[in-house]
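Workshop exercise sheet. Pairs work together: one partner reads the sequence aloud, the other fills in the structure field after running the prediction. Swap roles for the next sheet.
Pair: D.N. / O.F.
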Amino acid sequence: MAHINLLPWREEAEKAKQREYFTLLTAVAFGALAVVFLVGQFYQMRIDGQIARNQYLKNEIQLLDERIKEIKELNAKKSELLKRTSVVEQLQRSRNVGTQVLDEIAQVVPSGIYLTKMEKSGSNLQLIGKSESNNHLANMIRNIEASDFFADAVLESITANDAQSKLLSDFKMRVRIKGLLDKNDTTQGANP
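Structure field:
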């Protein structure tokens, strides 16, 4: 048999396999780098999108905060206006109270009752006077309760004074004027 030297051919085949291996390895490395780059770009796009959405939400939240602040200021102005209108309405209602009180007192006080003093405190009216009998006081309380202007008649005291005439007894009565608010009530009633 003839002697054939296969060594250069084997070396050439081995070098070809190595070149093929390194080419394949380089292609896989470039492919892997391309995949990593594309995945990185994909996630970077998602991150950028989320950052953009977050910034949009922050801007909208700032706008809403400004609107909420404006609404609070408007509510404060509204409550101030409600207080003012309440005071104006109160003043309007109580504009002629003095004459109305005297007119109504003339209607509800029966004969036999003599008023010596009247004091107005807010919506309360303190009546101090003399009475010929307790029946006259009872009639006066009934007239007050039936009145459209007065309410809540409370007889605080009846005293008979021996030094004065035995026919007359002193009394104190408290009556509330309907439709009037005390100064304390105007500050409480105006708040929503």
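Discussion prompt: The two ends are 119 Å apart (CA to CA). What would you look at next?
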